Amino acid sequence: MTTASVNRSLNPANTMLEQLIPLGDAGSSKWVRNVVAVVAGSILLTLSAKASIPFFPVPMTLQTLVVLSLGMILGPRLGAAAVLAYLAQGALGLPVFAGTPEKGIGLAYMLGTTGGYLLGFLVASYVVGLLAERRWDRSVLTTIAAMIIGNAIIYAFGIAWLGNIVGWDKPVLAWGMTPFLLGDLAKILIAAAVLPTLWKLFK
Question: Pairing with 68, which of 17, 92, 139, 155 sits 20 to 30 Å away (CA)?
């Protein structure tokens, strides 16, 4: 049995990242692993924002799936750090968000109608990461529950922000939530199929 196997059995991994790269408190190695994970997560978020999949009733991006999966795979702190790095890139004017640069860039874009969803990404990734540390990502039912909670947080921030900008007399839910529910259901089912299966494979 290798030293890594012994350490893994004595200190069960709380997150998938720790299961894959179990460095424990290995100082600089752990720091490098975490930085690489955060940067890779922010890049993956950019790619997911730009990808558009034909779906009904509106095209679907994979962004919420990636946001919540980052929380589950990296844990609350690193998952939120990856989202924060992504938001920082957008704030600096990089065209990392969906619809950029066509719909604007930087803080002007972030303070627009989608700003609440971006803030919701940050909170949801942290909350879902906390649930993952409690092993919610290791069974189908708890993964579905965690994804529903994460999506609810994103919608809560997004709808509240949107309503304050356009006015609550407008069809806020019809604009900011109902067209995306079927796509989010599909992404929840994908996560529920993939994440628990990965845990079984990695073990």
Answer: 92
Residue 30, number of CB atoms within 10 A of its CB: 15
Domains of the chain: 3-202 (1.10.1760.20)
pLDDT digits (tens, 9 = 90+) for 118-164: 999 999 999 999 999 999 999 999 999 999 999 999 999 999 999 99
Q: What is the pLDDT of residue 127?
A: 98
Are 155 and 180 in contact by the 8 Å Cβ rule? The answer is no
Cβ contact 151:184 at 8 Å = yes
> CB within 8 A of 67, min separation 6: which ones?
45, 83, 121, 124, 125, 150, 154
Burial of 156 (0-12, 13-18, 19+ CB in 10 A): middle
Asked if 32 and 93 touch (Cβ cutoff 8 Å), the reply is: no
